[in-house]
Design brief:
- By secondary structure, this protein is an alpha/beta fold.
- Helices cover 44% and strands 21% of the residues.
- It has ten helices and ten strands.
- The protein has helices at residues 18-31, 49-53, 69-79, 98-109, 127-138, 155-161, 174-184, 203-211, 216-228, 236-257; strands at 8-14, 36-43, 59-63, 84-88, 92-93, 113-120, 142-143, 150-154, 189-199, 262-264.
- Strands 1, 2, 3, 4, 5, 6, 7, 8, 9 and 10 form a ten-stranded mixed sheet that branches.
- Strand 1 (8-14), helix 1 and strand 2 (36-43) form a beta-alpha-beta unit.
- The longest helix is centred in the C-terminal third of the chain and has 22 residues, at 236-257.
- The relative contact order is 0.16.
- The mean pLDDT is 92.
Length: 266
């Protein structure tokens, strides 16, 4: 007997970057077969995003100022109804069947949090054709980690470990902190090669860093260190081991499947 499709909420926080938001939402409309609700949180955009979002079918939460990723995501989670909640960046483009395949992967593995594979960089190629070839080769490939720009989270995870830590300003480490807390609570994570998305890459954060002068990345790093008594990547030996392991995984995936599950265009 097939498992029933859970009610899924897609939560997206936006701050300006209307061009990327438009591409993201258009791809969701055209490529999503599974039922979902859309929850958008506008963090005080000033580029016409508010007017555009007023034309979109879904819940829209409007903040007067930029409250940052953690607070905006938490607003979206609280306003959502789904048994599964997708936390999405607004600078991604999804591909046909992405949500159905991710839900199937989650159901088959029992993971608490799952994500697709991703190709990063400029979208100057035929994503649809590339994704078909990628999935054909990589359907059986997995990694025991997730891609933070697009992740599906069971509501039970939030119920058990809480929401994103609002001590992190604007953006940075709040997703890593959340994933570490989930693992600490006993939940497993997984990335699947049965879904590929495109991610332009840190578009909003790069824009904020060009205008924000109060050193929030350093504050976020300090907050993370206080919580975990280490940096996200650890000491020199831990960083070196992680780099070697990731390089080996990438080489193995390319040899075995013809692609790495996270790859940069170019």
């Amino acid at each position: 007997m097939k498992s029933p499709v859970p009610h899924v909420s897609l939560v997206i926080a936006v701050y300006n970057q209307i061009h990327y938001t438009r591409q993201c939402l258009e791809s969701i409309v055209h490529c999503t077969e599974a039922p979902y609700e859309l929850v958008l949180v506008d963090n005080g955009s000033t580029d016409g995003t508010d007017g555009f979002l007023s034309t979109v079918k879904g819940k829209v939460i409007t903040n007067d100022t930029n409250l940052g990723c953690a607070k905006a995501w938490n607003q979206g989670v609280r306003a959502s109804n789904g048994e599964v909640i997708a936390i999405l960046n607004n600078d991604i483009v999804v591909t046909p069947g992405w949500l159905t395949s991710l839900l199937r992967f989650m159901d088959q593995t029992g993971h608490g949090i799952v994500s697709p594979s991703a190709r990063e960089g400029p979208l100057d190629y035929d994503l649809g054709s590339y994704a078909k070839e990628f999935v054909r080769r990589c359907t059986s490939a997995t990694r025991p980690r997730v891609y933070g720009a697009c992740m599906l989270v069971r509501r039970a995870v939030f119920d058990r470990i809480g929401l994103f830590d609002e001590g992190f300003s604007y953006g940075g480490f709040e997703d890593t902190d959340f994933l570490w807390r989930a693992r600490q609570a006993g939940y497993t994570l997984g990335m699947t090669g049965s879904v590929l998305i495109h991610h332009f890459g840190t578009v909003t954060q790069d824009a904020i860093k060009r205008t924000e002068t109060r050193g929030y990345p350093d504050r976020n790093l300090a907050h993370f260190q206080r919580k975990w008594n280490r940096t996200a990547r650890g000491n020199w030996a831990q960083r070196r081991w992680d780099d070697l392991r990731n390089a080996w995984i990438n080489r193995y995936e390319r040899f075995r499947y013809g692609h790495a599950l996270v790859e940069k265009k170019g």
